Amino acid sequence: MGKRRIRHYTNAMPLNVVSSAALVGLTNIPNIEAVKCAHELAVRMGFHKDPEFAPLINMFPGLAAAAAALCAYAAPAAAGSGIPEVKAYLNGIDAYSILAPSTLFVKIFGSILGVSAGFVVGKEGPMVHTGACIASLLGQGGSRRYHLTWKWLRYFKNDRDRRDLITCGAAAGVAAAFRAPVGGVLFALEEAASWWRSALLWRTFFTTAIVAIVLRAFIEYCWSGSCGLFGQGGLIMYDVSSAEATYSAPDLLAVILLGVIGGIFGSLYNYLVDKVLRTYAIINEKGAAFKILLVVGISIITSCCAFGLPWLAECIECPSNLKISCPTVGESGNYKSFQCQAGYYNDLASLFLNTNDDAIRNLFSTDTQKEFRISTLFIFFTAIYCLGIITYGIAIPSGLFIPVILAGATYGRLVGRLFESISKLDTGLFALLGAASLLGGTMRMTVSLCIILLELTNDLLLLPLVMLVLLISKTIADSFNKGVYDQIVKLKGLPYLEAHAEPYMRHLVAGDVVSGPLVTFSGIERVGNTLHALKTTGHNGFPVIDEPPFSDTPELCGLVLRSHLLVLLKGKNFSKDRVLCEEEIIQKFTTFDFGKAGSGKGIKLEDLDISEEEMEMFVDLHPITNASPYTVVETMSLAKAAILFRQLGLRHMCVVPKSQGRPPIVGILTRHDFMPEHILGLYPHMNPHK
Amino acid sequence: MGKRRIRHYTNAMPLNVVSSAALVGLTNIPNIEAVKCAHELAVRMGFHKDPEFAPLINMFPGLAAAAAALCAYAAPAAAGSGIPEVKAYLNGIDAYSILAPSTLFVKIFGSILGVSAGFVVGKEGPMVHTGACIASLLGQGGSRRYHLTWKWLRYFKNDRDRRDLITCGAAAGVAAAFRAPVGGVLFALEEAASWWRSALLWRTFFTTAIVAIVLRAFIEYCWSGSCGLFGQGGLIMYDVSSAEATYSAPDLLAVILLGVIGGIFGSLYNYLVDKVLRTYAIINEKGAAFKILLVVGISIITSCCAFGLPWLAECIECPSNLKISCPTVGESGNYKSFQCQAGYYNDLASLFLNTNDDAIRNLFSTDTQKEFRISTLFIFFTAIYCLGIITYGIAIPSGLFIPVILAGATYGRLVGRLFESISKLDTGLFALLGAASLLGGTMRMTVSLCIILLELTNDLLLLPLVMLVLLISKTIADSFNKGVYDQIVKLKGLPYLEAHAEPYMRHLVAGDVVSGPLVTFSGIERVGNTLHALKTTGHNGFPVIDEPPFSDTPELCGLVLRSHLLVLLKGKNFSKDRVLCEEEIIQKFTTFDFGKAGSGKGIKLEDLDISEEEMEMFVDLHPITNASPYTVVETMSLAKAAILFRQLGLRHMCVVPKSQGRPPIVGILTRHDFMPEHILGLYPHMNPHK
């Protein structure tokens, strides 16, 4: 029977759920605040006033510079959407800065400043990141630095539960951002998480249910206007259910065309974002000042577009029988006066001089067939599409959802206008389908986008068309390039493990890619040797080999982790001779001593204080050895080894020899050994597509 | 580098998608027909007429007997819901009868007859099974027996693609049954599939999108009434969106109570279904005649309830200002006349003497607070709850969704009536929440139920409450027993592999559970030996061991499958001496020769015709040996071995010795070795909960 050593894993099933709920309460509040503040700031700053815009043009770059400074100096990791980083973390890439408290802080306030500065950026991606950061903070037992710790959270001190918690956080972020609880679950599972389990489904569902209920309660409470703009619009952000969704063959044709356009523009968007990001990377590398300058530059371009382009549009007479005021002055609304006289409105200003949310609402508005001219839609689409591309990548927290929805809705409405003679479908619904197609073309999600759009707009009858459009745009875009988040992950150089094995891996075996000098320990090792190995290598796992007299022949005992070894060495349970002292060591430690520390924390090599005398003593590694590491034979097909590595979410995999009479281990495979760059570097003649 | 032998797998990505679409067209038609026919039969048989019911009582048992006879004689596997069987198949249990063409036939027509016979059964489970059967038929390249074969379908001749196709079929079934395309995807992933991949999500999404579009086209075409009752009600089966979903604190209290009741009744339902199934199993074992008698008996009880109980209800005066006729005579509707005079209706008859679909529609109907009396709801709930339990398990295709929704909606409405003084929520919405809570309590799904209910009722504003109710009922029910489908899988004795390792497995190692005599082959084996092994054992995989002179020491070469060995022996590539003849053999076969045959098909041992002389010859097993089998060391923790086995979807796992100088393989682990019964049989002192 197997011997149990110190338990490395603690499973915290019930506590996990309880804490998810708590987490969500916490996640939700900053999210709600962010929305609210951004809205209010925007309103106060005259987005909704008419064009005495001379002082504003100075104000926007100021806000932008503040956001950029926050980002550049306090937490560079907070720039961008955050979804690629969360995705990478959930794939097993544990980079400290991704989910650090400082990143959380900058993400929240940078996002508020960024949205207020009038950039064409969304708050959804940052909210996902915010949710994940808070979850990470809880998963680490709080922050010791800021004196926020809870003892019961120590149950999350293992990789898997912490990863689950962060998935819940990401789901909560989407749920709060779009007010789409089920969409949040599906987003977390389809886009964010790398490993699905039914328990995870249940946990994310629990989390977003709490979000929905808390959100609903807030909306109820704020109905009277006691919390500013928050809660306006209710649970459904862009309700289009009033429009009748009748469609026939010619409409289908228009919708298929929309899907095709979405696929092409979507993949082009990804291509251009990639190019722009590479250019910006060169500028951003030069220092914080350059980052801020770039942000201010883009801010000026954005402001010029927003306040300059509406001059191109002519005034349109207000339609009669409107329930809302036209033109609107000094408030959020559909018909902006801008430079027009009473009774007239400027349709381009109605899109540009609004918050992004209101602009989307205007584009989705139904029964307003002729509200926007074709030329207006064309100008707005071109401007927003380009601004969206050049804005992503500057040093502010910036989501991609809103720019993509804006651009998609605009060309959707444009197509609706062009087809109005033969199509019965409302232009507002065309805008919705356009948004769906561009989202499908850039992000390449399916079910989650479907549900998010359904929860945003409450139009179930349109579902078949939304599915059709997503299907077409994703298929077309997939034939050109990858989804935007995958592209960014790759561009950032994060060692993301794909779910499938690459075709060329079939022609290699596990032994082919094992690299580097192998450092092994004996079951009872000299302290000096372990310290030397820890100092001279960056390895996180070391194989332990039992030798005679502890076994008949040298055999693989298991694997020790660097972090556990450091804890053991810190405990100083050394002995003068090579003797087993397992019991003694086990008694000295508790399970929690070996719990996974917060990322970037834990004992460091410098914390150890080992005397010269102790260096010559021995330490028994058996109690901390994982005696059941996953192993593959060196002749195992690399493709199969990769699947094993990926499916089980491993960090180390031992490669053992096939024939007898050789040392019991050939090498260790880690995530980096499965990266295409590594393998194709070793075997340059390999064809990566075969 | 690894040497490639005959390719066992073919990946059919693009073809898969194309064929999914084709499959769906095919799946959809019988589904649609089933609904239509059942409806029409029911209407013709006087469900909607008033009580000249003497002839009907004879007719119902007749239909029931026909369904039972079909089921008992033609395909016993078609009885019941079918979802547990599909679930088991997708877990890797390849029982021939589960997805056979005869099962498909009986499932479709048995379901139509069963629904028409007035049983409290649903058509949803059978539709999922129907979808899976059609997918299986396509995945096998059609049916040779019925001369329906397509050559391009041979690309699915491997386990994984076929499993994917069947998942798509199940999704299509739900999508068609509830007219819920996204719900179908989620059902397939949450309940049916054992392995999730993002490619699978995309494929099921594709499938259900086609279902949605085809369905929408049919509804459009049938709008004028040219296809009977089909298409009535449009894409949303039970629309409740007209009711205002306003709720406050006291409503929440009522809703939480609903969730608690749902959890308790749900787990009780599962408990009773289990008991009833065990009782019926004894009766059904006695022969087909007993099966039919049981069905007729239940049919008579059902008819007595349906036509007898309404006499208990007093007539109620029709409400004024109704848009529909009251009382209704001779058609589907809400207010049944039964024995009442003009201007009055019988509320119990309005529930009993309707198709199940219409009864649900009546219960969900909004703005009809007082339509059903409390006593009526109580009687109907008791009757339906009990009928649902005693009906499941008889020899007809019978879904569980409809009975559970009916019972749940009834007590939901009952609770709504009880709380009407303090609650503002519509009783129709209470009925919906009741249905959600009982579904959550029996089936224990979360996201998929949420979306299915959303797509059934089109009330997005109620989503937070639906989530809350599901959360509570599932949590409570989970503390008593397992979900109903899991229970049935277990009861049927199917070796279902759970996603997680059992706790006691941590105390065992892989070597502890290896059982049975190990049969190994040499790399070049005597034909007689292989035949003997095939005859005397039921093993599906045999380890191949290379011995000197082909290697230095005996070493594990790989694993051959029984099916591949049979193909090789059929080819008769034998040689007089122990020589390698790999090239020659590879040239003689094509990839498709080794493709997985349809379940229950493929070459059998009896098909081989080996002469005495050939028995003494040798066959080179190397070309068909899988040279990279997954292996674990005998001292590997059984829990970790189980996770490896389950996560990678293996059928065989080789256990290799830890120390050198022993034979290169200790044994083979299969699915059965991981079953709790097997392990606890070997180690009776193990505590299964620790």
Automatic annotation (TrEMBL), chains A, B:
InterPro entries found in the cross-reference section: CBS_dom, CBS_dom_sf, Cl-channel/antiporter, Cl-channel_core, Cl_channel_pln, ClC
GO cellular component: chloride channel complex; plant-type vacuole membrane
Segments forming domain CBS: 624-688
MF terms (GO), sorted A to Z: voltage-gated chloride channel activity
Chief site of localization: membrane
Localisation per UniProt entry: Membrane
Transmembrane segments: 53-75, 95-121, 165-188, 200-219, 252-272, 292-313, 374-394, 428-454, 460-477
Membrane disposition: Multi-pass membrane protein
Keyword Ion transport: yes
CDD domains, alphabetized: CBS_pair_voltage-gated_CLC_euk_bac
Keywords: CBS domain, Chloride, Chloride channel, Ion channel, Ion transport, Membrane, Repeat, Transmembrane, Transmembrane helix, Transport, Voltage-gated channel
Domain of life of the native organism: Eukaryota
Signal peptide positions (record): none
Protein family according to the UniProt entry: Belongs to the chloride channel (TC 2.A.49) family.
Protein name per Swiss-Prot or TrEMBL: Chloride channel protein
